[in-house]
Amino acid sequence: MxxxxxxxxxxxxxxxxxxxxxxxxxxxxxxxxxxxxxRITAIVGANACGKSTLLRSLTRLLPPRAGQVxxxxxxxxxxxxxxxxxxLGLLPQSPVAPxxxxxxxxxxxxxxxxxxxxxxxxxxxxxxxxxALTVTGTADLAERPVDELSGGQRQRVWIAMALAQQxxxxxxxxxxxxxxxxxxxxxxxxxxxLNRDRGTTVVMVLHDLNLAARxxxxxxxxxxxxxxxxxxxxxxxxxxxxxxxFGLDSQIIADPVSGRPLMLPLGRHRSKMPEGCPDARAPGxxx
Length: 287
Hints:
Blueprint: E1 13-22, E2 25-34, E3 40-45, H1 51-58, E4 66-71, E5 74-75, H2 81-87, E6 88-91, H3 103-108, H4 123-135, H5 151-164, E7 169-173, H6 181-198, E8 201-205, H7 209-215, E9 218-223, E10 226-231, H8 233-236, H9 239-246, E11 250-254, E12 261-265
Parallel strand pairs: 3-8, 3-9, 6-7, 7-8
Antiparallel strand pairs: 1-2, 1-4, 4-5, 9-10, 11-12
């Protein structure tokens, strides 16, 4: 895949020996992670494997119990909050909007990291908000209260706020939640455009393994608070990985649209591998 058309300063976000959790529960254990700058990374795994905990740790919403997260070689916990927010944006899972706030006001909050005590709202802020509303298809909702919107509309508004922040790194926890399939594809296409046009590093947690493989340059499969496999989807999405991470038997074929690996789950009424397959890697036979 060619590099993005526009390449901003390439910020390196990594974790070293990261251990984190909640209360007595330890979720992440000694995790090492390197996120490819300027690329799209998708994090996949079974429920409660630590995907959201990892994202919260990477944005310092959750302090580590051991290890550290480094942005350009500097601990994110040593950086001023405004400086970090100008570089790294986060769309958390199930965010909550202030009661009665309108769509335009919520999206405008994405510009707060760019304002100091004496700075004023500018034409650049107007452009950033307008563009975010337009590309997410929420411009016609600008004056409506967020709490009156459907789940899908609300999710797109939150994505608009994250885009208005205009950070070089954008982390999203399940950005396609509540969206029907057409809006899921629209959001993922939007993030792809953002990556290719601006060079934005995108990191997202996704439940749909096939969409993750189609849209990501780099795939991270997590299991029990650790990284089981990481690399290009063609190397990570295998029958062995699906069995280990999800406890599911499957076949892997080439996606006829993207050429990326496509996972076909096998349930109790499973189909056998087609006759004539010399091995699992033959075309149409799975991996």
